Amino acid sequence: MKNNISQYYNDFGYIHSENFFSDKELQQIEVILKKFHENWLKANEKDYQSGLINSHSLTSSKFISQEERLEIFKFIAQDKISKIIQTIIPEKAIFLNTQLFFDPFNKNQNNYWHRDIQYTGMSIDEQKEKIKTQNVLHFRIPLQSELGIELIPTTHKNWDIKEEEETRLSMNGRKPSDNLQRGKIISLDRGDLLIFSANMIHRGLYGNNRFTFDIIFCDDTPEFRTFIDFKNHPTQKELKSLNTRFF
């Protein structure tokens, strides 16, 4: 099974596991996530109305208690998540951050094709090389059924074909919200787990009041550590309650 997971991810850049979490497993974390989200919306109302579709850094937020923070860490550190990370990134991975994804305030707001690496300031040539060796993994956990995500399999290691690059980068009259021929829609239900490479071409699909928790891991290298805000990581005291090597 481990070899199958690793091989499928290496080939296609994603894994969709249905009914990965039981409802009971999600209930406790869901209460914390909803509390954070309600407070975040109040504090960031203008930015939300201006187009934001996600929040981040839940584990360093003033909107949750220390006890709730530890519960999030315990969820992240659970054995069945750790085993998958070890299978996909057998060398050494490290926790990067958390995010919540939700629908835009403006229901007519367009989604957009992108690779996360395009926002790092690297040149196109640098990006083409880095996607071949670097790993950034999203563990996407929907709290309710949603339209999901559209991605282009194999692009976690392979560069865009012409139509895709022009769309993603708004070239030659194309827009990032235009449809792409090779796009594959992955619909998600509560309890599912979608693991995908942040380096691949993808876009979130808005609608159905999506409410999705993402846990992000990356290679544990000096290069990536410069991007990590360690306020999002457990303290030494909290680590004693966690059985994991990814913090």
CATH topology: Jelly Rolls
Second CATH tier, the architecture: Sandwich
Question: How many H/I helical runs?
Answer: 9
Q: Radius of gyration over alpha carbons?
A: 18 Å
What's the mean pLDDT score?
Answer: 96
CATH H-level name... which superfamily? q2cbj1_9rhob like domain
Shape: globular
- Got a strand count? 9
What's the helix-strand series? HEHHEHHEHEEHEEEEHH
Assembly classification: single chain
- Low-pLDDT stretches are none
Largest sheet: 6 strands, antiparallel
The main sheet orders its strands as 1-7-4-9-3-2
Strand content: 15-25%
Q: What is the end-to-end distance?
A: 26 Å
Helix content: 25-40%
The CATH class assignment is Mainly Beta
Briefly note the structural class of the backbone: alpha+beta
Number of domains: 1
